[in-house]
Design a protein that fits this description.
alpha+beta, 2 domains, four-stranded antiparallel sheet, three-stranded antiparallel sheet, 4 helices
């Protein structure tokens, strides 16, 4: 049976929540009030998944609901200051394409001459290590191919990025704070 948990026995339709004037979540189909602030729907049979009301940032799959965000930082080899604005724009386009291919979304991107910051929303079926491997590999190859002269002059030994990286799950701090931090990086002119 498909319906909200609030009226699962009486309301066979999938119901949506609305915030009433009193501040309580109310099922718009059966009218019952959710006192916990969580509206639960029944997905494909008897599987119950709790989803906070008004959650537009959640990724919904056949059997899961997730909100996975990761803040990534990649540095250049030997911390050489070679990235300029044009290279960062090209890198952003390349990384956005990689994220799209993997089913992820590049939410925010910025950088400085020796490192880049990314905020990525990714599906639960994608490992962070796989995401990092693809992002670093494809973007490094594309940037070295496009900006060969700059990379050769910097004596990078045919490597653009350091093999290390920083990854932190974004959930402790509000996403707006992380976005603001990434936006305020000192991007080269």
């Amino acid at each position: 049976m498909r319906g909200c948990i609030l009226g699962a026995l009486t309301c066979p339709r999938l119901a949506l929540t609305t915030r009433a004037i009193t501040g309580a979540n109310r099922c718009c189909r059966c009218g019952r009030v959710d006192t916990f602030g969580v509206h639960t729907t029944t997905l494909k049979g008897t599987t119950d998944i709790a989803v906070p009301a008004g959650s537009g940032d959640y990724r919904r799959g056949g059997h899961s609901v997730s909100a996975l965000w990761v803040h990534l930082v990649f540095v250049t080899k030997y911390r050489r200051r070679i990235l300029n604005s044009a290279m960062l724009d090209f890198c952003q386009q390349t990384m956005s394409g990689v994220c799209t291919d993997l089913g992820a979304e590049l939410v925010e991107f910025n950088g400085e001459p020796e490192h880049v910051h990314l905020l990525v929303a990714y599906p639960p079926t994608l490992a962070v290590a796989t995401l990092v491997h693809r992002l670093k590999g494809r973007s490094s190859y594309a940037v070295r191919r496009e900006y060969t002269g700059t990379c050769v002059r910097a004596r990078m030994n045919s490597h653009l990025r350091s093999p290390s990286y920083f990854a932190a799950s974004a959930g402790g701090a509000p996403l707006s704070v992380i976005k603001r931090y990434i936006e305020n990086q000192n991007r080269p002119l």
